[in-house]
Amino acid sequence: MATSQLVVRSLGIAILLLPAVPQIALSGEFGPEPTQCYSYSNDPINGTFTNTTAKYSRRGYCLSQDTKDTVIQYPTTTQGSFSNGSAKEVFEIPQGAFNQPSHFYGKWVTTFSCPSDPWLTGVTCTVTNVNDSFSEHDPGYILKNIDRGRRRGLPLSVPVIPAERNALIAQRNLQLAEQDNAEKKSNRRAAQRLQGATQPPTPHRTVLSPIIHAPTAGQRFLNQTTVPIRLGPPPQWADTNIGIDGGPIKTAESVTGYMVRIERKDPMGNWVAQTTLPVGAIQAESAAGYTGFGAGAPPGGITTPGAWRMSAQVSSPRPSGWSEWVEFVVMPPATNKALQPPKRSFGK
Predict the structure, then answer these.
(1) Which of helix, strand or coil describes residue 142?
(2) Distance, C-alpha 107 to centroid of its chain
(3) Which of 322, 321, 339 is nearest to 330 (CA)?
(4) DSSP letter string, 37-96
C-alpha cells in the first residue's frame, strides 16, 4: 500500500495520511524504520524570552507503523530552555492519550552544553545528561529514533526551517524590546518617587496644600506696610470636632505650623527669593493673620515697590505640598507724585 493511503488510527478516528509529512527533528532521514517522531505537527514552536533565559514549547506527534501498514499517531509535548550555555529539553508522550491498553508513553529529559541557543542558531551541542522513563511495548523504533536524534547534538524541537527560526528570532527581539521599555518606565517611576521624597513637591503637582486666604491675587499694598498672611489648613486636615463653645477642637492631626516662602521680581523679570518664614497655626489662622511681614525686620521682612508672590505649606505635624503661588503688588508711598491725581486746569 502506498504511503499516501496509509490509515492513521488516532483517538479512534480513521483518517487518510497525507503524503506531505514535515521531516523535522526525528524523521525518516535516520533510516527506513517503520516509526517516525516529529517535533511538531501544524503548531509552531513558541518562545518566551528574557535577557538571561529562553523557554520553548511545542506540540507534535510520533507515528508507529505496523506490518499491516496501519499507522498509529502518538501525541507529544516538548518543553525546552536555554540559559548560561546549558540547554534542557523534556520530550514526552503522555500516558492515557488513547483508550488502548498497549499505548506507549514516556518522558525523555536531555541536558546539553551549547555555545549558543540551539533553537535560535542551530548550533551543535553536547549531551551532558539523560534521564528517561517510559512504558514497555515500544510499538516500533520510537526509542531508536529518539536516540538517533540525541546523537545529532540538537534538542528534538529545534527548528530546521529558516523561516521558522527567523520567526523565533523576531519574537525574541520583540519581547526583549518590550521588557526593556517596561524596565525604563519602572526606573523613571522609581526616580520620580525618590525625587519626590527628597524635594518639596512643586505647586502644579500638589493636591494636599494649605489655603491662602490673604493676600489675595492682585491685592495692592503700600511700600513697607504690613502684608497680612492668613492661611487655612488643607481640606483634608480641616478640624471636624466642635467644642461646647462652638469652636474647633484641635486634634493630633490638626495643623500646628506653616512655612511661608516669599519671592519678588527683579528688574530683569526674574523671581528671586526674599524670605522663608515659619508661622504658627494659631497666628496664621486667626482673623488678623500673621502680621510680621511687610513692615517687619529688615532685610527679609520689609517690602519694596514691585511684583511679589507667596506660597505656603504645612510644616507640622507633617509636611504637605506647597500651594500655588499668589501674586500681589507693592506700591510706592502715597506721597510719590506718580500716585497723585493729575492736576486739572480750568482756565483757558
Answers:
(1) helix
(2) 38
(3) 339
(4) EES-SSPPPEEEE-SS-EEEEEEEEEEEE-TTSEEEEEEEEEEEEEETTEEEEEEEE-TT
317 prior amide bond cis, ω within 30? yes
Q: What is the mean pLDDT of each run of 10 residues along the chain (348 residues)?
A: 34 31 35 47 79 88 65 82 93 70 79 92 92 77 78 84 86 88 80 60 56 93 92 73 54 80 90 90 91 84 90 89 92 65 50
Pull the grid cell for residue 31: 533510516
Cα distances (Å, whole numbers) of residue 166 to 55, 119, 122, 140, 171: 16, 10, 11, 34, 9
Query: Domain 206-241+253-338 belongs to what architecture?
Result: Sandwich (2.60)
Show Cβ contacts of residue 221 under 8 Å, excluding neighbours closer than 6 positions.
215, 227, 294, 303, 328, 329, 330, 331
Contact present, 255 and 262 (Cβ < 8 Å): no
* CATH 2.60.40.10 segments of the chain: 206-241+253-338
CB–CB of 60/78 below 8 Å? yes
> CA 277, CA 291: separation in Å to the nearest integer?
12
* DSSP assigned state of 318: S
Q: What is the pTM of this model?
A: 0.46
Of all helices (H) and strands (E), which one includes residue 121? helix 118-121
For 324, list phi and psi in degrees, rounded to 5: -65, 150
Cα(218)–Cα(204) distance, integer angstroms: 20
